Amino acid sequence: MRRLILVSLLALSACAQMPGASTMATARPVAAAPAAATTPRGFVAAANPLATEAGLRVLRDGGSAVDAAVAIQAVLSLVEPQSSGLGGGAFLTYYDARTGKVTAYDGREKAPHGAAPDMFMGLEGKPLSFGTAVLSGRATGVPGVVAMLAQTQKEHGSARWSTLFRDAERLATDGFTVSPRMAGMVNSPRILQGHTPDAKAYFTRPDGQRYQAGDVLKNPAYAATLKRLAAEGPSALYEGPIAQAIVDKVREGALPGSITLADLKTYRPRSADALCRPWKVYTVCVPNPSSSGVAVLQALMMLEHTDIAKLGPKDPAAWAILAEAERVMYADRDRYVADPSFVKVPVEGLLDPAYVAERARLIKDVAGPAPKFGLPKGAPVVGIDATREPSGTSHFVVMDPAGNVVSMTTTVESIFGSGRMVGGFFLNNQMTDFSFSPVEKDGAPAANAVAAGKRPRSSMTPLIVLDDKGRFLAAVGSPGGNAILSYNLKAMVGLFYWNLTMQEAINLPNMVARGENFSGDAELFGPDMVAALNARGVTVKTGQNETSGLHGVIVRSGGVLEGGADPRREGVARGL
To answer: If you ran DSSP here, which 8-state letter would residue 159 be given?
Structure first.
């Protein structure tokens, strides 16, 4: 049998150079892993080198992909707290190498039972400003990532739960080196100005100055939390003193939250078969709503009706087509996707081939008026959505030696979440992922309105792709708030239409088009491409940039693993 070679194109630093449009290269076509190949030794791509190493250590010790995911999340909560943490939520897509089954795990936060549809409405019936709401106690939903990881690890783990927090506990106790990205946020007046006392105190050195890149930051409170979590399991967060601290913390201030001990104790993650659809010769699998994975599937299916594959990444017409596909995708997503336990989400209608073909006819190689939402079969009567969704999120990918794969997107929502800390970690502000107004001017209800026990809509879409034999082929995902859908779509186009390597697909400029708004990586596109896009009505402006955080892995011919990490952030991709 042929031996799998693990390619490390992989360990990229934050200062890696990104190619402009003039340097975009093509690569060999994608090839599936051979049927008789041996299993790989292991692979991790995550947003911080310390998190990547924690995942690899678990794999070296014989742990599974899910075991490694627990360790990675524990470290990310410490070294990248602006993006994710124990006080947040996540979606995890899991490929089981033995059965070939893809399962979607939903650890999205829930609204507490005291939440009300008008909780973000202020005086005179107007929505609160986002800045007011985001740091309030009302912004925090019942966190779900720990419960979700515990369930997934129970079902697919091979290591003892108690062993998975050692790296994070050591780093919290001994200290870790503050990265340039964290330091930039800690020292940004725009980010921390007006932030909570918790955040300001944590990021202030004993000499009264803010922590800088290269400083060593210790977090003994987080070390104590991890010690308790390792010993007691997930109940350490959902019951007892940490749970009480969460309840107390969200009740501080002028707009207190309503989370109770009962809300925490009764939180349950969801799991189900992933939402999978055939595309080209592959099968693409994503989480179910309230994730927006259905929108990415719809966009990929629409692009099959276009010439984007023939045009390639140096042709402005290709980018215009991608932008127009995104606008149609967002028009439908913004209208219909929400928590299916509360609102009917017309998944089958949105993915019906006839409906997809109808919507694809709106896609041209020049920008027209902003497309309106469609009317798929089974569509409910709901209003247009006005949800804001900031980009404080992270994504990582793990493959273990047995070939099992985790693709996981995790978040605390805004940068540093609500800014409120308990036990050394930040609480989320995911409740602001709901539509602030429960109804529109015409009286139609917003699908993503607040309701007690409801999960807010999410753009998090960790993808897994299977080959034509149903075997694992690729995993990819990104942070980025609403732009996650565009980032993931761009990477898929680069990989499977333009035959780029994983790293080249990740490095491509980003294009985000939603409604009347366009945004793109102007510097990476270059002035000639920007001018050509503007001539087509795709108004990318000088100075714009889109800071995706894509991570991925793909199986190439001969069983070679090829990974990538987004040089726009600080991630690295490495193999055993």
So the answer is: S
- Residues forming a β-bridge with 32: none
Q: How far apart are CA 271 and CA 175, in angstroms?
A: 36
C-alpha angle 71-77-83 in degrees, rounded to nearest 5: 125
Q: Which domain holds residue 45?
A: 6-175+218-271+386-510+546-575
As given in the structure block, the two tokens for residue 354 are 């006839």
Is the residue at 186 inside a domain?
no
Give one DSSP letter per residue of 141-180, joined into a string. PBP-HHHHHHHHHHHH--S-GGGTTHHHHHHHHH-EEPPH
Q: Token pair for residue 29?
A: 């076509």
Composition of the chain by helix, strand, coil, percent to 5? 35, 20, 45
Token digits for 509? 């400029």
Torsion of CA 468, 471, 473, 474, to 10 degrees: 120
Sign of CA dihedral 132, 134, 135, 138: positive
HEC readout, 247-316? HHHHCCCCCCCCCCHHHHHCCCCEEEECEEEEECCEEEEECCCCECHHHHHHHHHHHCCCCHHHHCCCCH
Residue 18 lies in a domain: yes
Please report whether residue 287 resides in a domain: no
Question: Could you report how far apart the first and last alpha carbons of the chain are, in Å?
Answer: 20
The total number of structural domains that make up the chain: 1
> CA-to-CA distance for 91 and 528, rounded, in angstroms?
39
CB 367 within 8 A of CB 324: yes
Q: At what angle do helices 484-496 and 293-303 cross, to 10 degrees?
A: 40
Q: Tell the residue number behind the tokens 């969200």, with chain if given.
A: 250
pTM: 0.92
539 catalytically annotated? no
Task: Give the pLDDT confidence of 339-379 residue by residue, as tens digits.
Answer: 999 999 999 999 999 999 999 999 999 999 999 999 999 99
Active-site residue, from 93, 140, 196, 393: 393
The bridge status of strand 6-7 relative to strand 425-426 is: unpaired
In which band, very low, low, confident or very high, does the pLDDT at 441 lie, cut at 50, 70 and 90? low
Residue 193: per-residue pLDDT: 64
Domain with residue 438: its CATH number is 3.60.20.40
Render pLDDT for 119-154 as a digit per residue (tens, 0 to 9).
Answer: 998 877 788 888 889 889 999 999 999 999 999 999
Q: Enumerate the H helices of 453-508 as residue ranges.
A: 484-496, 502-507
H-helix segments, 337-388: 347-350, 353-360
Tokens, residue 416 = 């540093």
Residue 255 lies in a domain: yes
Token duo for residue 367: 């920008």
